[in-house]
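ok so I'm stuck.
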Amino acid sequence: MTPLRELRAAVQRNCLIADARHARNYTMCTYLLKMREYYRWEKGYRFADSLPKDDLGNWLSERERLWETLEDEPFAPLPVNGAEFAPFDSETINSTLAPLGLVYSGGYGGHATPHFFLGELLRAEDREGFSILVAGGEQARDLAAPPAMSQGKTIYVRRESLRRLLWERIEEWRWRKIDGPMQRALDHFGFDVDPDGALEAMTDCELEAAILHEIGECRAGELLGEDWNEMLLTLSASPAELVARAVRDHLADSLCALPTLMARNSTPSLHFYFANYRGMRRELYPELLSAYQHWTEDGNERLLQDTILNGRGRWQATAEELLRLYRNHGPDAAAPISELLKKKGPPKEAPEQPCQCAAKPA
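replied:
not stuck anymore, here's the structure
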């Protein structure tokens, strides 16, 4: 086994262990959809290919049996250039892999779920004090395969995972064909004329939007401190974690992604953002969706701009209130945090805050 194949096998094994512990936490529908796309990636099928049902079913059963043998296994160290590294020591591993044109990440996502991937390094850049590593083709991945994550001052963006996510969202829209933000985003890229080319163009566009979101996440982390991460671990898998993550998402996007997209007039990314404005984020902040709808109806962007600018103060104050509840109640903070926003009245207008992101791409 060559060193690269040995590394890939070690990363993929850790991915399998993570899946063995967490993959079945999804709802049945989401689980089956994710497993279907995982099979497509592993077997090398294109998006347009029909998948063989019998082989897919057999693969799924075999994968679940394999998970049963791995669930209690520890994550293994990774062999790189004759040395072994801890699987969460991404910074050290990447300093060794960069000359080889590779990028690696090992970290934790929602519900304290570990994620690992190994991919080709498309590009590396420094922006606003952050190191941004963009991955292309993926050599190893887990079931979830989040398109973007940040660790400290490093932001990882996975183009292949982002492209797959876009394709899934487009397929989901095609089943219902509802006129709205997704239709507007697809129209911009000409999916009716050239679906493959449009998907590539949309992926490149949304890759920048993903970077902006992660910069906002990092800025939010600087404002909220380490207590926030400790709170998320304490509240893991509770409804309060969903509330806290949605609040931080709103803060992150008001700090960077939304004001920057507005400043750049990135209309397709704004449409795609609101096409995916759902769940807890939408429940907590329906005013933002209303402002977007107002903009699409009359072309006047002032209300949307004002709502975005006022969002920073609102969501920073809300996040700090969540932290106060956590510091006062510790592990028992889940209930008061879940109830907090239900008790709030109409939002008070906060003073406008300047965007912390550059108005132009680096």
